Amino acid sequence: MVILGDNIFQDSIREDVHSFLEGGRIFLKKVPDANRFGVAELDGGRVIGIEEKPEVPKSNYAVTGLYMYDGEVFDVISMLEPSGRGELEITDVNNYYIDQGR
């Protein structure tokens, strides 16, 4: 479980935690100003990509900064390359799991 430090959550995630088995899980929130956030691209109810702070968002669903991963996440992190900002990006981890259908 990863929760970014600048987020506050009011809703319970108990059922989400109990039902999580493997892969990755992100939490989304519909927002009016999606271009300020990482934005989920959706195909029906399935996330097919995430884009960081797009000028033209593909949806109004922001990635909230609450994530769940299985143990493979450490292998994924070891394969990441720093972004243009010189940082490893959580969006790259999430997109890995999306690309794997997990």
Salient structural properties:
about 30% strand; alpha+beta; single chain; 5 strands
Task: Give a verbal description of the structure.
23% of the residues lie in helices and 30% in strands. With 102 residues, the chain is of the alpha+beta class. It starts with a strand and ends with a helix.
Q: Provide mean pLDDT, rounded.
A: 93
Helical content, roughly? 10-25%
Strand content: 25-35%
> Largest sheet, described in full?
3 strands, antiparallel
Q: Please tell me how large the radius of gyration is.
A: 13 Å
Specify the number of helices: 3
The parts where pLDDT drops under 50 for at least 5 residues are: none
Structural class: alpha+beta
Physical arrangement of strands within the biggest beta sheet: 1-5-2
User: What general form does the structure show?
Assistant: globular
Q: Element order, helices and strands? A: EHEEEEHH
Total number of strands: 5
Termini gap: 16 Å
